[in-house]
Design brief:
Number of helices: 15
Shape: globular
Largest sheet: none
Structural class: mainly alpha
Distance between the termini: 12 Å
Radius of gyration: 18 Å
Length: 306
Amino acid sequence: MGIALLGKLGSLFLIMLAGYVIVRCGLLRSEDSHTLSVLCLYLICPCSIISAFQIESNPSIVSGLLLCLAAAVVIHAVYIITVMLLKKPLKLDAVEQTSIIYTNAGNLIIPIVSSLLGPEWVIYTCAFICVQVPLQWSHCKSIICNEHHLDIRKILTNVNMISVMLGIILFFTGLELPAFLQSTIDTVGSTIGTVSMLVVGMLIGGMDLKDIFLRRRTWLITAMRLVVMPLITVLFLRIGAGHSSLPEADKVLMITLLAAAAPAGATVTQMAQVYGANEHDACSINVLTTLLCIVTMPLMVALYQM
């Protein structure tokens, strides 16, 4: 599993490199990635979520989904509380806080799980996404935009929230979308990994790479995101798998671990870019965590499987 995961992460890294080369060759500007960020946030992500829920329901899948959902709720609660406690001692700003909490679970994990385990296992990534997406468009967005009051109407009418609710309805009712519409959604949603990595690569193309690797704060946040938080998750999931009666609990919860051990969320970078936050730091953290996750994610999976 670790070797296959390493290969898939390597292919996504090459896509990111392509985005970097395009900017460095002068074919596009780094700022042009803003358009791709908007497309990813408001079109591709919703399609990938709906697509993941399009699988026939059965008791085993529902049990696995509920197990992953419970694990995702606890994991996010632990992450948020941990960051709240460390906010003042480590002097974490908005981008650093959200980069530690929120991962690239959708953009990165959906294509990885689909390639390694098969499309039928992607449904279990939805549990993590169902918890993370509402938090991203409420808690995460409020921190990045420095909003003290949440607008519930805006959260519920956000296209990503609507796609989660629509996906859940379709899954539990067994309703199927027309074939041509489902094919369109699947095609658009399948580009999530490619487009997200291109955005990161294009942003890197406009940055000083020395600044990314020499800035101590970036390494601190990277260590928190890729090592500290995943280690907490491994411990929790091993206990959960040991007490679960689900036959494939180990494998199901490993998908949750992949989502929790992923690099800093591209959505954080995209939100910082769209809403005018510190996109430079957001991109630096995203870049370093994406590069190093090629090593840390397989290690976390190996540790989990021991």
